[in-house]
Amino acid sequence: MRLWTLFKIFCALVVLAIVLLSVYFTMHVLGKEIPAPAKEFFSKWMPEPEPLLVQDDNDDHEKLLAATEMIDIEPGDKAFQKAAELLATGKIAEAREKLLFLVNYYPSSNAVPRAKQILSEMNTDDFLSLHNNPLLITHKVARGDSYLGIAAKHQTTLDCIMHFNGYLELRPLQPGDEMMVMPLNLRVTIEPKRQALTLWNGATFLREYRILKCVGAPVTLTALKIENKGGVINGKRVAPGMTGFRASEKTIALGRNLQIVAHHADAASAVHGFHLDPADTEELALLLRVGNEVEIRP
Hints:
The chain is an alpha+beta fold. Helix content is about 40%, strand content about 20%. Among the domains are: about 75-115; about 135-180, Membrane-bound Lytic Murein Transglycosylase D, Chain A; about 185-295, L,D-transpeptidase catalytic domain-like, CATH 2.40.440. The strands form two sheets. A ten-stranded mixed sheet has the order 6-12-3-4-5-11-10-9-7-8. Strands 1-2 form a two-stranded antiparallel ribbon. The longest helix is centred in the first third of the chain and has 27 residues, at about 5-30.
């Protein structure tokens, strides 16, 4: 037999011995029964192992779970926090989607009022934007056109025309002039109990305003339309298009002797209708036109 063959046999026996020792050592540590020849060796040269698993009646982990109050984060709050993070990182579109998800799927969440406030600002900014606004239409002035006629044709308002064209006052029209107009086909829902007036662009939420005071609100579901818009300046009423209208305090007549008016805390107004912050009333006069639908939900 060659020397090389003997060497390979020797190496194989060494490996086998190491494997057997490893197996027996593991069995000894785990407290399992070892075959007799090996048991005597391990009993003589290896001490008895301590138990690996000790049952502790006062387990620290169980104590921690028992003593710690688990905080239950409301799903609406989690969605709002995520939206706030997205806004902080400039991801506006994703933040809007998260806020809409919150409003639609968790309407009773405590975070909904804050979400609606942020959405209101975002939506109004987009709606009234002078740049890249898909709702804007270019109107070319023809002979015989008037501002009221243009507003009626495009279902918009003089305020809206002045806003989108940067007018401080109405200027004479010249045939061939171009101006930007935007149809205002919004609808309004008023909820006196919730003290909320909401604007909708079709089925899409646009903005919510807080009602500061209600006087003589209907007690049943009521469908109305905006009948008239005007303003008051120095105690005198002014109509759209008249000098001073833009600087006047706006009023919006809904019918049934109900109006949307500006609220003043120091005045005991008996005007029937819905009293809002003056800035909100001003904005509503810009966004609403005669004929817009109004639904009052008691």
